Amino acid sequence: SVVLQECHVQNTAREYAKLYAAEAEPLEGFGEVPEIIPIFLIHRPANNIPYATVEEELVGEFVKYSVKDGKEVNFLRRDSEAGQKCCTFQHWVYEKTNGNLLVTDLQGVGMKLTDVGIATLAKGYKGFKGNCSFSFIEQFRALHQCNEYCEMLGLKSLRTTHQKQRKTISTKSKNLPNSSTVKKMVPKKAREPRDFISSEH
Questions:
Q1: Are 112 and 105 in contact (CB under 8 A)?
Q2: Residue 146 lies in a domain
Q3: Domain annotation covers residue 127
Q4: CATH number (domain holding residue 9)
Q5: What's the rounded Cα separation, in Å, for the pair 161 and 166?
Q6: Which of 26, 106, 172, 182 could cross-link to 86 by cystine, CB 3.0-4.6 Å?
């Protein structure tokens, strides 16, 4: 059922948020970390809607901290501390799951979030399938701008890997005979494994 999936998604995202908090909280200057509130499934056999969800009521201004469709420009996302930390949380999960999973629809009051979604690649991730389209992952990759919290956590910029890939593709088409010799030389430079990976794309 939709209600069951909603619970599963939010509580899965909540587990990631706890791991994120455990890594971020000890960092000097990071401060408060956003939390996803728990959502509970209740069974009411006598009711005509037998299953419902229960969660803590959030009081205050409800804000969406992550973009859903690209057209929505939300300054609170960029300018507020909670918004920046939510974007960093998305980046952290994306990196932790090797780009297979993204927590979407981060929204709530202050640092307390609810009603979140999860996007996964088509095949899912570790047996889990999200409830949002894969295009959210592509959109995040294209739109995310790292902030100071991404830097504190040592997350890799998504932009540079994008540009590197584009460069290697364009040089490959121009100098096709060289591309094979370049490939042979790169693995010897043990210090730059990432360049090697991007030249393979």
A1: no
A2: yes
A3: yes
A4: 3.20.200.10
A5: 9
A6: 106
